């Protein structure tokens, strides 16, 4: 089952740190080495930090990506706050139009 993840970073994470993490991961809006299992990714500023919203094919695929690539990128860029993560099962609706 697909899962949605809302990751809220309070404080220091902003566009510069986000871009540095994305560069470290080799990812961009136009392509790059996107991980297996990711369905969608969006990110942007909030009143008190930064928010990332992902949809993944499974929790296991996100967990693998986090351990193998994302956490090391956080560590290399440095000073990345621990995100508050909310997950939810994605309900896919069919028959649009």
Description:
The protein is of the alpha+beta class and 97 residues long. The protein has a single domain (3-89), classed as Alpha-Beta Plaits, CATH 3.30.70.100. The protein is built from two helices and six strands, in the order βαββββαβ. The protein has helices spanning 15-25, 59-77; strands at residues 3-10, 27-28, 31-32, 38-46, 49-56, 84-89. A hairpin with a 2-residue loop joins strand 4 and strand 5. The radius of gyration is 14 Å and the shape is globular. The model has no long low-confidence stretch (mean pLDDT 90).
Give me a quick take on this structure.
The protein has 97 residues and is of the alpha+beta class. It has two helices and six strands, in the order βαββββαβ. The relative contact order is 0.32.
Order of helices and strands: EHEEEEHE
- Using only C-alpha atoms, the radius of gyration works out to 14 Å
Total number of helices: 2
Main β-sheet, in a few words? 4 strands, antiparallel
Which CATH architecture is right?
2-Layer Sandwich
The low-confidence parts are: none
Instruction: Return the CATH class.
Output: Alpha Beta
Strand fraction? 35-45%
Strand order across the biggest sheet? 4-5-1-6
Average pLDDT level: 90
Number of strands: 6
CATH topology: Alpha-Beta Plaits
Class by helix and strand content? alpha+beta
Question: Looking at the structure, what is the overall shape?
Answer: globular
* Domain module tally: 1
| Span between termini | 24 Å
In which range does the helix fraction lie?
25-40%
């Amino acid at each position: 089952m697909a899962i949605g993840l809302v990751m809220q970073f309070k404080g220091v994470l902003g566009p510069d740190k986000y871009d540095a993490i994305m560069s470290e991961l080799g990812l961009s809006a136009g392509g790059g080495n996107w991980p297996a299992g990711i369905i969608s990714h969006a990110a942007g500023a909030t009143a008190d930090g930064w928010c990332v919203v992902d949809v993944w094919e499974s929790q296991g695929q996100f967990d693998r990506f986090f351990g193998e690539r994302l956490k090391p990128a956080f560590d290399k860029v440095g000073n990345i706050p621990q995100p508050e993560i909310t997950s939810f099962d994605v309900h896919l609706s069919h028959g649009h139009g």
